[in-house]
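Hi V.,

You were right to ask for the full record rather than a summary. Here it is.
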Amino acid sequence: MDEKRKLKFILYAFSLLLIIGTVGYRILLYVDIVDALYMKVITVSTVGFGEVGTTSNTSEIFSVIMIFLGVDIVNYAFTSIVAMFVEGKVSDLWKGSKLKYQEKLVSLF
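Predicted structure:
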């Protein structure tokens, strides 16, 4: 997978995890959207300040799944980005996007 696709995949995976987690906590804990988002962030970041609603076995299993998925996505993102830096691909991405921008400007004239 090329680097741009990896970065897009990471962004989409984080976004999807955030949406699914927020909606899941909203439904399972019967809390408002801000509390559900807060619960999702403290779960994925493994901070664990405490639950904002009354938990059940289902919500605890959901939390375990969210923790594993969150840790997996963070690990994938970290290793992918570090590999891009080590291989020198980040500067290539930067140069490539800069070149495309310059080509668009030239094509306008």
